[in-house]
């Protein structure tokens, strides 16, 4: 099968869209499929032998390091020249809209993957474009042959927009990378105070330090007795956090084995954002054997069974995050039970299984579905 992937983000950017596309590209290649990637630049022109066509981009206002792809004739030239069987639209907004138009012109079926709450993103950056952005995203997905969503909350969101043929397609997790065996007591001790293992419970956030992740909620954990807060990642909110969360440790951006070791060396993982369509870092923490505290909103509702595989807190209650973390900090037996149950839950969520489902249940079905939906 020949698959053209038009994505709003790809390496060297590090985010959920990039990670998902990278995994799809790598596993499609291992399965023997031919793949082309079209992505905003600058960046590498190939990934593990797969060509990556780079198109024009501009930096997002307020977050200049995040490139937004622009309409570019190179998209049509690349996709038409590749002659795909199916066009995969990864979190389509601007570049994805161009990819959709090209696919419809070529009469090629499209699978559009909803992954980013763009309207929520716009609100967090004060762009005042959330309503027209939501309408635009809905229009793209209504015109795609099939839409895949990562969670029940996203399913309901797109159904409310009138999007037809919506299917649940969750994310995989790299079980060979994220593993409890990567825990480093030396690293944990370096975080937990005075170099003495066990002197403090290490509570960590992993992800972009950015407004859309609502990381300022981490200030709620400042001064919590017996807790050392660690922030793994980087972004425009780092300076604010360093000023307002005294005593927190900041590792900067980590990747690969260093990231997996940091995950496994935490005692508790916390997430702060309520606009997550999935929340991959929750799965990675669970695969690392770390108990999770996450908001009872969006993607985490599908990943965390409260009291069994983690703890959910009410993001509308200003005291809820601190209360949930305090409870876990004081109960090591509960931490162990939550971590064990979550680890068992993620054991079958390998990327190989997830990409296999993408091919067999979605690509192959749209190939036999006939023409694309009418304009909407």
From TrEMBL:
Keywords: Glycosyltransferase, Transferase. Gene3D superfamilies: Glycogen Phosphorylase B. SUPFAM superfamilies: UDP-Glycosyltransferase/glycogen phosphorylase (SSF53756). Transmembrane segments: none annotated. Residues 14-176 form the Glycosyltransferase subfamily 4-like N-terminal domain. It holds the Pfam family Glyco_transf_4. This is Glycosyltransferase family 1 protein. It comes from Nocardioides koreensis.
